[in-house]
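HUMAN: Mind sharing a backbone?

ASSISTANT:
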Amino acid sequence: MEFIAAAAAPKQPVLGFLAPGVVGQFFTIMLLLLLVYVMIQRAKAGLRIPAIRKIPGLDAVPEAVGRATEMGRPVHFSPGLGSVSNPATFAAWAFLAYIAKICAQYDTRLINTNRDYLVHAINEEIIKQAYLEAGKPEAYNPDDIRWLSDSQFAYATGVLGIFQRERPAANIMIGYFYAESLLFAEAGHLSGAIQVAGTTNTTQLPFFIVSCDYTLLGEEIYAASAYVSQEPVLVGSVVGQDIGKILVFIAIILGTIFENTMKTNPLTALLRK
């Protein structure tokens, strides 16, 4: 009976607040959070941190806007179907500010189409601010920031109509896209536009890869948004997470070696605590 009672007794929490079996996971997460925090603080202070690799698709953006300027045709930007709570939408906003500044400097018309009304309102302010910073507030045209519909394919149909009528020379699509991705890319191709696209939706990446000139793959949109904005929080977050990924990769290699060369894997034992 004593044995049964001992077995049924609840395990005591580790350090007074951690359930047994999650200690290793807790400290691993804390280490990753610490890395991100330290990198953000260093970026804010202007101290040296590892540089973010420049992505080829970024070089194509000024080229695409320049081509549209020479042809006297507009630039189209879509943030996809993501809401204000979607991380890909935050990446899209950094790109939108970057593109709007270039369009303002080149006196190139920028058409922004939206599906979510909250995203639409934020995009208006981002574009307006970009024109103010470029010293050309009079060139800002609120009629070119267009909310079309909150229905997926009604929005897609509206964008296709804009491509047919306006014939943009550059089509930039950064955000979270669904089945409309190929429709947009094909319409852009038919209008002869240079196309730069990026999304974290892996089911849509193949369509962008085969139909666009440049594609940002998955998490590259976050790195690219940090690169173009140079916002310390974004830059520090990306660098800290990348260092964390490197450490996880090293742990996987060491774990594989330990598992095949030692009777007891210390990393496994640590994570099970």
The chain has eleven helices and six strands. Strands lie at 75-80, 110-114, 145-147, 170-176, 194-199, 214-217. The two ends are 28 Å apart (CA to CA).
